[in-house]
Amino acid sequence: MKLTALVLTLCVAVHANSNGGSETCCVDMVPKHPVDAQSSPFAKTGYKVSVDKEKISDGGEAKITVSGERPFKGYLLQVRDGETAIGTFDIAANDGHSKTINCFTKEKDHHLQSHNTLHKHVDLMLRRWLGMLSHLLNQLPFPVDFNDVFFRGEPKHNMATHNNANDKKSVSVTWKPPKGVKKTYTVYVTVAENGGVFWVRQPTAKITVE
């Protein structure tokens, strides 16, 4: 079975985004805070990501839990195939901790996939622009579904984030892989203890879809 590393990323926006991360966090997974990320080893922070099953069947689901010895304020979570956010997070509308956001990374940009450095730069800038545009549309007094306007038919709910800035010791969400994709996923996390202390894109657990 061909193994493809997919990224499960947790990114946090606190204070500036107390009700959760936004589409502007989709590409680089870095909280938009006015300080740099921590450089200390993530393994010594007391924060971790765990999964209830290391192997799931095609069409199955996995529960992913973010927890810590100390509280954290918020989070953002993705599962990626290379640089593309895939799969679906199943979170109830009345959930007390989490919500979903639509991230559009490379599903519609296959023409830009290239080893050419310039093409990669253009691809990155395009995806950042799409994220900012989606965020602006969501701020309108009349909600605009970015997916329906620009990417009709593309997957939705492929990013999970916090919906408040309350202290959290543990948050669990359910993730479902895309159907027919049998690969090994790598879990990556960015977690913020608060608005000034956060660790970016750390590799943690793995999930294999068989």
Give Rg in angstroms: 16 Å
Task: Compute the average pLDDT.
Answer: 76
Number of helices: 2
Level-2 CATH architecture = Sandwich
Summarize the SSE layout with pairings.
Layout: E1 6-10, E2 47-51, E3 55-56, E4 62-72, E5 74-81, E6 84-85, E7 88-90, E8 98-101, H1 117-138, H2 146-150, E9 159-162, E10 168-176, E11 184-194, E12 197-209
Parallel strand pairs: 1-11, 3-12
Antiparallel strand pairs: 1-5, 2-4, 4-10, 5-6, 5-9, 5-11, 7-10, 8-9, 11-12
Description:
With 210 residues, the protein is mostly beta strands. The chain has a single domain (6-108, 155-209), classed as Reeler domain (Immunoglobulin-like). The chain has helices spanning 117-138, 146-150, and strands at residues 6-10, 47-51, 55-56, 62-72, 74-81, 84-85, 88-90, 98-101, 159-162, 168-176, 184-194, 197-209. The strands form two sheets. Strands 1, 3, 5, 6, 8, 9, 11 and 12 form an eight-stranded mixed sheet that branches. Strand 11 and strand 12 form a beta hairpin. The radius of gyration is 16 Å and the shape is globular. The model is unreliable at 11-16 and 105-116 (pLDDT under 50).
